[in-house]
Specification:
single chain, 170 residues, 16% helix
């Protein structure tokens, strides 16, 4: 029995990545995030999503590229991640969302090894295409450190979803 899984494919730099569609909450137009002081290197700020502040991580910075320069195709993908046993919304930037693609086991190869022989644990698999590969991300592991430091930090959690007067009551 061949099980097909769906992935949202997106472009960051020259590479195409895939994220399991079950992690994607929605895709929104890019807006410049409000800066957050003392945040991780790839966290570029927060955006308002229906009144709630959502931290945004720049995947270009995460992957060692120059930061995002917004174009008409740039967007923010809102993900629902499990952090410290809580569902948490985190946004990531993408140069472009391409499509929802389905891949079966026959389309997949194991992730490559690093030069030192260790596996790359944040890559689930490589999906073969006619003209290359889609790097299927284990998005939880990809963002693990950054999401934990930006979302679980005490300063940040005091400000999320609260009116200015509410923070003093905590």
């Amino acid at each position: 029995m061949n099980t097909q899984r769906q992935y949202l494919t997106l472009r960051v730099g020259e590479a195409v990545y895939g994220i399991g569609i079950h992690k994607v909450r929605e895709v929104v137009a890019y807006e410049t995030p409000s800066p957050m002081p003392n945040s991780s290197g790839c966290m570029i700020g927060v955006v308002s999503l229906r009144g709630s502040a959502v931290p945004v991580l720049d995947l270009r910075l995460k992957f060692g590229l120059e930061g995002t320069v917004a174009t008409v195709d740039t967007c923010i993908i809102i993900l629902e991640l499990q952090i410290d046993q809580e569902k948490t919304l985190v946004g990531i930037t993408a140069d472009m969302v391409q499509q929802v693609a389905e891949f079966g086991e026959e389309d997949l190869e194991p992730p490559p090894h690093q030069a030192d022989g260790r596996s790359v644990d944040w890559i689930q698999a490589m999906a073969r295409l006619e003209n290359g590969f889609v790097i299927l991300l284990d998005i939880d592991k990809t963002l693990e450190q950054d999401a934990l430091t930006t979302v679980s930090g005490e300063e940040f959690s005091l400000n999320i979803g609260q009116k200015s007067g509410d923070a003093a009551e905590n």
